[in-house]
Please model this.
Amino acid sequence: MTTVDGAVADGGGAARRGATGGVRARRPLPGRIVARAGGGAVRVFLVLVALFWLMPSVGLLLSSLRGPRQSAESGWWRVFAEPAQLTFDNYSRLLANGKVMGSLLTTAEITVPATVLVVVIGSLAGYAFACMDFPGRDGWFLVVVGLLVVPVQVALIPVAKLFGAVGLFETTAGVVLFHTAFGLPFAVFLLRNFFAEIPRELLEAGRLDGAGELRLFARVVLPLGGPAIASLAIFQFLWVWNDMLVALIFADSGHPPVTVALQQEVRQFGNNIDVLAPGAFLSMVVPLIVFFAFQRQFVSGVMAGAVK
Model:
């Protein structure tokens, strides 16, 4: 009887638990910490972290708006006590500096083709490795993955000798080819893994309708892979725009990119802050504009990759 009563009691308890939706699972430790801290405290903490990371950029902006004498006498934070120090004279001098302004154009001539080539070739190769069957596909993909671990420094001397033999040394085309070659392994690896998650049924349905591989790539794969391609384009653009090592070795010394041009200004004029600060800020603004312009696609690509 006791067993029956216990069973009945357990059955009633189970029924009550079922009626109330069951026993709630306990939250993980990070979730409990965030819940106890409160939304307001978390937001304040995130704002402080954002301000901490933005401080160098703000300091560079304010330094670019101060005169050389003020920059030599005190730090950039002095402008909060003396806002009259702010002036656009430095940018006027920068616009009159043909070497630095020309270097921005040279950097664009290198970055845009290198980014476009990597995105186009990487997309086609990623589609081939993910959605097409051909002999040796897995082996060639392992070769591509192996190229990811090759450091840029290993190839500098051999590629310099090769470019010197074919007439590409100290040319814009040589720098573009170098960045394209070293950007492709990561591009192929990233896009191949993303394209492999596209349902095969979509591709098979297109093939049954008579669509060729190029049409499938343009009409099916590219629209679905837009976030991943945008993420790749942002990564490649930032890497090439901010590069200094490859540009210092392979670029034309008479028409260098902005990173090399600013480094030459430091070497020639050690305290030329009125040119260096605005030039560095302008070189930083362009990648920021590109990132914020494609921010939504970038976040979508990162989240899609995390889910998959």
